[in-house]
Amino acid sequence: MDENCSTEPCANVWGMSDDSENGDWRSTTIDAAQAEHNPKVAAAVERITQLRQSIDNIDGAAIALLAERFKATAQVGQLKAEAGFAPADYQREDYQIQRLHRIAEDAGLDPDIAEMYREFVVTETKKRHARIAAAGGDPQVLDVFA
Ligand SMILES: O=C(O)C(=O)C[C@]1(C(=O)O)C=C[C@@H](O)C=C1
Fold this sequence. Notes:
This protein is mostly helical. It folds into 2 domains: 3-30, no CATH class; 34-141, Chorismate mutase (Chorismate Mutase Domain, subunit A, Up-down Bundle). The chain is 60% helix and 0% strand. Helix 1 (39-83) packs parallel to helix 3 and helix 2 (90-107) runs antiparallel to helix 3 (111-134). The longest helix is centred in the middle third of the chain and has 45 residues, at 39-83. The radius of gyration is 23 Å and the shape is elongated. It starts with 38 loop residues before the first helix and ends in a 12-residue tail after the last helix.
């Protein structure tokens, strides 16, 4: 990292024109035209473009996996409603918290991120379980089945 970047905006050390000229260096829209006369900027633009392709692939896979997860939990919600079980199972959640914490650490991911993910999906799942139970166990009550 350029030593100028620790305290100052990085964008213009490469001679790029960006939002920093308007006083907002926190936002930079990558524009290939800026790279034309600056090889360092050109290399950065090329690499960012490659990385964005990976990011888009990862986002697509994450959404597909989430869809599968919610399809599975909708079935759990139906089974729980039919058996008279409550939406939440805190013993299961404790197990999931510990397990995802371990997996995150092994993967080099901040466990807080794993916990934010878990909290989000489990909270949404419990809301959907409650809606299925209120509809007498019919998962079709969900706007989208998954
Ligand atoms: O495993 C269950 O019992 C579920 O209902 C699924 C799930 C989850 O989303 O993973 C949701 C709610 C429970 O509190 C625990 C786990």
